[in-house]
Amino acid sequence: MFSMPGTTCSDSTCYQLMQKGRLSTTKERLPLKHFTTNTDQCGSEILAEAENHEVKVKHKVTESSKMRCPVFYICFLLCLCLGLACVFCVCLWFNRWNGGFAWDGSELQFNWHPVLMVSGLVVVYGIGAVVYRIPLTWRQNKLPWKLLHAALMLLALILSIIGLQAVFYVHNAKGIPPLYSLHSWVGIAATALFATQWAVGMAGFLLPCSPMSLRKLLKPVHVWLGGSILLLSTAACISGINEKLFFSLKGNTTGSQPYSQLPPEALFANSLGVLIIAFSMVVLKILSNQQWQHPDSRPEDTAYTPLFQEEN
Amino acid sequence: MFSMPGTTCSDSTCYQLMQKGRLSTTKERLPLKHFTTNTDQCGSEILAEAENHEVKVKHKVTESSKMRCPVFYICFLLCLCLGLACVFCVCLWFNRWNGGFAWDGSELQFNWHPVLMVSGLVVVYGIGAVVYRIPLTWRQNKLPWKLLHAALMLLALILSIIGLQAVFYVHNAKGIPPLYSLHSWVGIAATALFATQWAVGMAGFLLPCSPMSLRKLLKPVHVWLGGSILLLSTAACISGINEKLFFSLKGNTTGSQPYSQLPPEALFANSLGVLIIAFSMVVLKILSNQQWQHPDSRPEDTAYTPLFQEEN
């Protein structure tokens, strides 16, 4: 027997099932259409059928978990590897072909811009978005994982802001007008949206005083904006790499091969773009798979657990 | 009483409920934990409680539909308006500031490239992706909507391929190497992925001989790649507009204002980029909302309806 919280559980089968905690822990809901309930059928028969179904559900959940978790962890590992590869490649590109890094208003200060934007707005942001989906965390207290999610997002935001500061500083020092290219419009929009998302997310999901109704309202918007920021940041990075290569590899003025001849720098930076796209696709894979959503966030779960009410 | 397809329905209440088709049409599943079933409680009591709960569910479904549908249709209308605005603006940009259109290997033939790529790979693609989510279609035969989805995607693919052909033709005529920029890599990857997605989707979801197990396996990959193609096509368009403006608005060579001074053309084309981003975000909003998914595509729906088995 499966009972609703607050109702009594009066027979031993119920007790055994409750003790085993099969359904309460997995939060599995049994669709009623799987049961026949007519006026000649008493509770004991229904119970037997329910138990039979429950065994099938347990089998399904176990099978599903067997199938699901390794694929999740492969995707998560791929996400981490691609993220590290992105950061490594963007650092190598500006260190090897563009003179390294400094903070003095020169071209070398500009080099911090792509490194910090790719690291913050793409890599740390993407990892921060998927960390909350790790199945291992589903049975644990949500708070530490929410805090980790918020902390990673804050780190990503700080890196992005410093990255923007680097380019504003250089533009200012060289008298170049700021924010004229479409790349800069998309990049600034991504960072502004991200800052808003972080502040609203913090107030809505972490402050104990925020009402449950607000959280329920915010949740789908938070998920949608999360994906949108990834879209914007990827578009900003791709257009930024493209723009930088057209600026750097003019061929005739610098003596180096032009971009159209695909010299080693161009090939390397284009490959960095491919890595960023691959990273974003893996993040999107994890975010789009509804089977990997935290059980409390699934649409069929009508109950919403406020952070500081049930868990702490 | 709510019965499983294939089981008998033996009392009048069941019959009335089935006749009203409340649950079978909405495919609403009642979580079992909302019911108390103990050995002292017979079917009639359970039935009364189930009916009571069903009334609440119906109320919830009605309330939910009231809330949900207008928001969906607002988003859908916004999607159509933004899509039309994107097509209008990209045509106007190349007609007013770049000499119009031709198919003769000149710059005028190049102008078809952005028009066809924005129209095909972004606008028609995005509308094709969300058309299957229209709630009005949920109670109807799925086949015409699947065919419309496939037809719009085919149109999008044809437009994109002609758009690519335009730029390859011009590059060939002018001796410019093809496929060197990151923009071109991302654009070609988006189109190749889209062509593969269309062919596999066609074979997997529309051919009557494709097994149900294959469809179940394909579905999450199809959804994920659908979102990924949108990500790639948006990134390709943003980087393409950015690149085109840097090429066209050099200032010193053409006598026109440089891009950095944001002349009217630059402001207009940047705004087109913002429209494309807004369009993609609205498409993402519709795709990411699980409440707007076709009921047969929701993860909690364990039954999978093959196209040519139950419907036709």
From TrEMBL, chains A, B:
Species source reads Cynoglossus semilaevis
PANTHER family, alphabetically?
Answer: CYTOCHROME B561-RELATED, LYSOSOMAL MEMBRANE ASCORBATE-DEPENDENT FERRIREDUCTASE CYB561A3
Q: Which residues cross the membrane?
A: 71-95, 115-135, 147-170, 182-209, 221-241, 267-288
Briefly, what is this protein's role? Transmembrane reductase that uses ascorbate as an electron donor in the cytoplasm and transfers electrons across membranes to reduce iron cations Fe(3+) into Fe(2+) in the lumen of the late endosome and lysosome. Reduced iron can then be extruded from the late endosome and lysosome to the cytoplasm by divalent metal-specific transporters. It is therefore most probably involved in endosomal and lysosomal cellular iron homeostasis.
Membrane topology summary: Multi-pass membrane protein
Single GO cellular component annotation? lysosomal membrane
Keyword Zinc among UniProt keywords: no
Q: Is-annotated flag, keyword Iron?
A: yes
Query: Where found in the cell?
Result: Late endosome membrane; Lysosome membrane
What is the protein name for this chain?
Lysosomal membrane ascorbate-dependent ferrireductase CYB561A3
- Name the Gene Ontology molecular function terms of this record: metal ion binding; transmembrane ascorbate ferrireductase activity
List, for all copies, the residue spans of the domain called Cytochrome b561. Answer: 78-288
